[in-house]
Amino acid sequence: MPELPEVETIARGLAKRVTGDVIESVWLGQKKEPLKSPAAEIAAVLEHSRIAEVRRMGKHIVFDLDNVGNVQRGPSPANGRSPKRKVKQSKGTVSTLHAEAGGGARPTQTNNAQWIVHLGMTGRLQVCDPQTEIAKHTHAILKLSSGRELRFVDPRRFGRLSVASSAGFDAGGVEPLEVDVDRFVELFRGRKTPIKSALLNQKLLRGVGNIYADESLFRAGIRPRRRAASITREQSGKLYLSIQEVLKEAIALGGSSVSDYVNAEGEEGFFQLQHRIYGREGEPCLVCKAPVKRVVIAGRSSHYCPKCQK
Ligand SMILES: [Zn+2]
User: Fold this and answer.
1) Is 85 helix (H, G, I), strand (E, B) or coil?
2) Of the residues 27, 64, 107, 247, which has the fewest C-beta atoms closer than 10 A?
3) Mean pLDDT rounded to a whole number for the chain
4) Residue 18: what pLDDT?
5) Is 203 considered catalytic here?
């Protein structure tokens, strides 16, 4: 599952490629799971919107949209027909694009709406030419005024697409790269859960997942099972710095390519080569040579050194 550094890498890649482009029309598949907002609402918000910005919030990719109304239409298709077209889906279902044939112009408005994409486990955003073969498990196709398409593909369907109106999207929790140390320490005060669970709790800190929690705890010398409340102020300060360090290093290396993660350009990240503890069960600790241990906390594998981490 992509965590903060992978989502950051993907968002930056998309920002480079689609910022300023206008979404002309939207096709959404028949599968219900990927649509967190109703299909009609997603289509209404996206169509005729300009992508003003693409950024990461927690593990979400947020597209900030300006409504440009119905005025920036490209030339009519040569055959004079409406741009409606049939798109064949893998399971044989057929849907039509929601594009209107340039009907009555809507008033231009700045609605500051947002399109929010959560990639789940296997979600992928693809920028491609319309001729590119439509991959199996494609759930959304956005036709862009630049002539390209932005597609959402997700075989396992844990990813989610939604839209937010002017109130703005609330990703919950605080950004680990923006929070200050005092606020960070405060997050864990009085919590009886293991520190590892607290780090994974997206309502506290957003975007830190299994890999980066393990790596940060190792660098800070804290065992994943330690009660969050029992961690001293000094150790919390160390953990705060470790998280910042690990996330920044991982972003610089384009994230960790575990399972099938690739960025917006289809390239792998390289931070997995820097993992010091994650996935190293039974191997010698890089600091003291003691065999790395693995325990399961809240259903997730946690790796730690029994000597270096207290
Ligand atoms: Zn060790």
Assistant:
1) coil
2) 107
3) 86
4) 96
5) no
Note whether 277 and 218 are within 8 A (CB).
Answer: yes
Which of 3, 8, 47, 215 is catalytic? The answer is: 3
The yes-or-no answer on residue 136 being catalytic is no
The CA–CA distances, whole Å, from 119 to 3, 122, 152 equal 10, 6, 9
Task: Let me know if 226 is a catalytic residue.
Answer: no
Catalytically annotated residue among 17, 56, 59, 206? 59
- Separation between Cα atoms, residue 28 and residue 42, nearest integer Å: 9
> 3-state DSSP call for residue 2?
coil
**What is the whole-number distance in angstroms between the Cα of residue 302 and the centre of ligand 1?**
15
Q: Which amino acid is at 146?
A: S
Q: How far is the CA of 310 from the centre of ligand 1 (A)?
A: 10
Instruction: Indicate the SS3 state at residue 211.
Output: helix
CA of 215 to the centre of ligand 1 (A): 13
Strands (E) in the chain, as ranges, are: 22-28, 49-57, 60-67, 86-88, 94-96, 113-118, 124-128, 138-144, 149-153, 160-164, 293-297, 300-304
309 CA → ligand 1 middle, Å: 7
What the block records as the tokens of 53 is 């910005």
Q: How far away, in angstroms, is 237 Cα from ligand 1 center?
A: 20
Q: What predicted TM-score, i.e. pTM, was given to this entire model? A: 0.81
77 given a catalytic annotation: no
Contact criterion met (CB below 8 Å) for 150 and 142: yes
